[in-house]
Structure prediction request, 504 residues.
Amino acid sequence: MGIEENSPRLDHEVVIVGSGFGGMGVAIGLKNMKIDDFVILERADDLGGTWRDNTYPGLAVDVASMAYSYSFEPNPDWTRLYARGPEIWAYADHCAEKYDIKRHIRFGQNVERAVFDEDASTWTVHIEGGKTYVCRYFISATGALVTPKMPNIEGADTFKGKVIHTARWDHEHDLTGERVAVIGTGATAIQLIPEIVSQVQQLDVYQRTPIWLLPKFDGEISDTWKKAFRYVPGLQRLGRLSTNALFELLVGGGFNHYIGMSWLFNWLERQSIAHIRRQVKDPAIQEKLIPDYTFFCKRASFTNDYFPVFNRDNVALVTDPIARITESGIVTADGTVREIDTMICATGFSVFEKGIMPGCEVVGRGGKELGQYWEDTRLKAFKGITVPDFPNYFMIFGPYAIASFCYFGMIDTQVRHLSRCLKTAKKRGANCIEVKRSAFDDDFKQVMKRRESQVLYRGNCASSNTYYFDRNGDGPLLRPATHVGTWFKSHFISMQNYEFGLKG
Ligand code: NAP
Prediction:
C-alpha cells in the first residue's frame, strides 16, 4: 500500500527514528501493509539499539529469550533460557536481514528536531549537520533507557583513573589486577559484578539502595530441546506464553493490584530474603542486601551468582553514602578513603527527562514542542502512542505504553494501533491523522484511576529511590493494565478516537 506514491514534496512516506527492536518492528509492520517508502534514521553506525550500546561483561536478558523476541519470528536456536547480549544482538541483525530492513536504514543520522507543517500535513525531520527529510508520517522509536546517567557526586570530574559507564563499555581497558569500584547495584550491576570479580584485585561495590533479587532459572538449551523447538509445533509458543503468563501474574496482577495481591509480594520478598541467606555467609552483609521497601517498587531481577560475590575476600559492600570523589579514590560519609584505579558507573539512565522521551525535539501544531509540553504538564499519550496537536506522529514506548513489562508485546500492540490509523487514513483518502483531545483526556483519566491500586501508590516505596516515578510523582513507564487486555483492545481501537483530514 503506497499511500501517496507520487507526492513531489515528500522524501519518504514514513520516517522512523531508531533501529532498535521498536523501530524494526514498525518497519516490518509497514512492510506487511505494503508500505516500502520509508527510512529508519539511526544516529549510530549499526542497528540494535540497547543491544548495540550495552556490551558490558555479563550482559544478558532477564526475561526468558522465548518471550524476548518477535512473536512472528521465534528463534529455536537460543543457546540459553536467558540469552546473552551478543546473541540478542545477532537476533536483531537476523531480523533486519530476513525482513529486508537494512536497505532502509540510514546510519549516522542524528535527528535533532522534527517540525510539523500544518498546511502540507507533513513533517520535516532535521538532522545534525543540516540535512532534512520530509515525510508524511513521523514515528519515534528511540527507547527509554538510552542516555547513560553519570553519578552527580562532588569531585567526580577530578578523578584521574579510568571511568567507564556500563552502557559504554571500554573493551580496550583491562581490569586485571586493578582496584575497582562499581557504583550502583541495579539490574546491570548484578550481571556485571560476578563477571569481573575474579579478574580484579579489589572490588568495592557501592550500594545506595539494594534491589529485590530472585533465583534465576537459567541454563543452556540442549540440542534436543532446540530440535524440539524447531520441529514440534507450538512448543516455542508455549514457552513464550508461559513466560508472559508469569509476568502477567507478577506485574499485570501483582504490580497493578497491590492490595488484593499483597500475599504475592510477601511471598516474593520471603523467597528473595531466603536466597540472600542461603548465598551470603556474613549475617551483617545479609542484612545490608535486604531491601526495606515493597517488592516491585523498583526494578527487581534474577541472579544466581551476585550474592556469593560478597563471600570473597577481595570484595567490599560499601553502604555508607559516597561523600566525594578525589583524584585517586572514593570517600564515604564516615571518612573512609578507598583508593581505586577504575570507577565503573552502573548508574543507569536518564529516563523521564526532557530530550529523552522522545529523543529529539518534536514540534507540532502552533510551534508546540512535545518535550516542553510534557514538562509544563505531565507525561501522557493516548494509549502511549499519540498526542493531540502532533498529527501524523506516533511513538513506540511513549508514556504508559508498556503493560506487564511485555516489551515485544508492546511493540506488537503499538504497531497494530498505528497500522489501523494508517489504513483508515488511506481508506478515507485522508493525509492528516490526529487523536481527539477527548480520547486523550479520557485515556489519561482511566490510567490515573487504575494506577491507584498499583504497588507504586499502595506499597511502601518511600525508600526505594525508584526511577519508575517521574518528577510529578507519576509512574509513566508501566500501563496499569494487563498485557493480554492491552493486546486484545489493540485489535479494536476505535478510529472514532481520531480526526482524519485532507490537507495541502
Ligand atoms: P538502575 O536500575 O537505574 O540502577 C542504577 C544504580 O545506580 C542504582 O543502584 C542507583 O542507586 C545507583 N546510583 C545512581 N546514581 C548514584 C549515585 N550518585 N550514587 C550512588 N549510587 C547511584 O540502572 P541499571 O542497573 O543500568 O538498569 C537500568 C534498567 O536497564 C533496568 O531497570 C532494566 O530495565 C534495564 N536492564 C535490563 C536488563 C535485562 O537483563 N533485561 C539488564 C540490565 C538492565 P539508587 O537505587 O539508590 O538510585
Summary: Residues 46 and 107 are 7 Å apart (CA to CA). The mean pLDDT is 95.
